[in-house]
Amino acid sequence: MKRKILSAVLAAAMAISLTACGGGSKDSSGTSVEVPTIDKLKGEDYKDLSAEIKILTNRTDIVDTVYKGYAETFMKKYPNIKVTYEGMTDYEESLILRLQNGDWGDICFIPSGVEKSEMGEYFTPLGDYETLDKIYNFVSEKTYDGTVYGVPNGGTAGGVAYNKRIWKEAGISELPKTPDEFLEDLKLIKEKTDAIPLYTNFAAKFPMGAWNDYVGIASNADADYKNNKLLHQKDPFTKNSEMSGPYAVFYTLYQAVADKLVEEDPASSDWESSKGMINKGEIATMVLGSWCVQQFKDGGDHPEDIGYMPFPITVEGKQAAASGGNYAYAINNKASSENQVAAMLYVKWMLEESPIFSDEGSIPALKGEPLPDSLSEFKEVELLVDNPPQAGEESLYDDIRMNAEVLSGDYPVSEVLEAALYGDKSMDDLMAEWNQKWTDAQSSFAVEVAE
Questions:
Q1: Distance, CA of 199 to CA of 284 (rounded, Å)
Q2: Topology alike, domains 8-152+327-361 and 156-326+372-451
Q3: What is the rounded CA–CA span in Å between residue 245 and residue 254?
Q4: How far is 236 from 217, CA to CA, in rounded Å?
Q5: 108, 255, 356, 358, 437 from 69: Cα distances, Å
Q6: 262-271 pLDDT, tens per residue?
Q7: How many CA atoms lie less than 13 Å away from 193 in the CB half-sphere?
Q8: 3-class SS at 444?
Q9: Region 8-152+327-361: CATH code
């Protein structure tokens, strides 16, 4: 079923109207004030602005250290704006509940459960797509009907984090380029080292959802696949002869679990401790976006052992990786105008002046900046960005995946792990079920399917 956060009645009851160029609300004196878009925001015009803003974040590990430091640096530039952070565990579920009453703070990362068509109900327009696309990377991801509601906090490439020392001790001298080569390497790691070959982080939920990210460019080497071709494809989860496409992605996980190449009890896995475990060599490999690399390097005394490889699928002799945005900053459109402007100033500062991208080893938000060192092993890999959907289908990917309950978070991927772990469903049977769900969702939205 399509997941909607608010009912139509609640959506219609929104008290704040939005203008085409920005958000509008009343300041503390009751005066109507227009909030400028981020491209038109001039910091020198707001040196005397007084406000207190709160930022919600999933980074509970550094909220009181690194993020506090960013806030303190910003407040030296804008001494009348007080910035505080609130770290949230179970970020996605908790924030979706808090968005409904509007009184959650001023800046957040947009949860994946908020569909594109819903963003205008919660967030201030940051600008139009044609303008911001020339300034920042990845803005199409949080754009709806030509309006940008979120700018990603930099970006990542899709691949696999690994401990270089452990892979070398296993006798592996060349990185895998196919699912079966990857599985053979995991078997060597199990045979020749004491490390867990592949750590799923099943209990943390969100790492499992990362597998969905490889269904697009990594599995097809096609920037049009995810937002366009997949939506109109018949039975996209069917196995093909080249072992590419969506089937190949989930086969890699299924077979790793079936061959007992993962942690003994996935239900007891732990995300925070896994950072130290891969740093020490107790874990050999984890499938996550490149955002994880710096966290794993910071997890212990062996940052030099952390590497990052392309996801092991080859299409017509080449490998490709999706380059996409991290969580996107968004501003509460129900906050006062002072707070919306102050929040816009802070987001702009984070994107353009803060050291966050070098600190986290991520692709910078500003266009034209160099790639991070973490992607040094992607020199022969084509980095692509998903092309936007065609006109009229801006929300169709979300509509279909949420309706089908496939590619919609950690749960569907967890089905793959559980089927392999308990042996109660074959990979082919599971993918046949997904194909049927996809077909039913296509039918629900009257999608024309290519034969």
A1: 8
A2: yes
A3: 15
A4: 14
A5: 18, 44, 11, 15, 47
A6: 999 999 999 9
A7: 26
A8: helix
A9: 3.40.190.10
Cβ neighbours around 131 below 10 Å, total:
16
Give backbone dihedrals phi and psi of 376, rounded to 5 degrees, phi first.
Answer: -65, -25
CB within 8 A of 287, min separation 6: which ones? 160, 161, 198, 207, 210, 211, 214, 253, 311
Q: pTM higher than 0.85 for the full model?
A: no
| pLDDT over threshold 90, residue 15 | no
d(CA 182, CA 389): 32
- Structurally, at CATH architecture level, domain 156-326+372-451 sits in 3-Layer(aba) Sandwich (3.40)
Condensed to tens digits (0 to 9), the pLDDT of residues 348-376 reads 999 999 999 989 889 999 998 888 888 98
Phi-psi category of residue 331: left, alpha or beta, with phi > 0 → left and psi -120 to 50 → alpha: beta
**Cα gap 204→414, rounded to integer Å:** 11
Domain ranges of the chain: 8-152+327-361, 156-326+372-451
CA–CA gap between residue 395 and residue 3 (Å, rounded): 13
Nearest Cα neighbor of 310 from 386, 416, 217, 240 is: 217
Cα separation, 331 vs 340, in Å, equals 7
Contacts of 253 (CB under 8 A, 6+ apart): 200, 211, 287, 413, 416, 417, 420
Using CB atoms within 10 A of its CB, is residue 353 exposed (0-12), middle (13-18) or buried (19+)? middle
For 405, other C-beta atoms within 10 Å of its C-beta total 17
Cβ(296)–Cβ(275) below 8 Å: yes
CB 438 within 8 Å of CB 400: yes
234, 238, 242, 245 alpha-carbon torsion, rounded to 10°: 70
CA 36 to chain centre: 27
> Measured in whole angstroms, how far is the alpha carbon of residue 370 from the centre of its chain?
21
The encoded tokens of residue 241 equal 């002869």
How would you classify the pairing of strands 107-109 and 328-331?
Answer: antiparallel
Q: Which two tokens stand for residue 62?
A: 């550094």
Using DSSP, state whether 176 is helix, strand or coil: coil
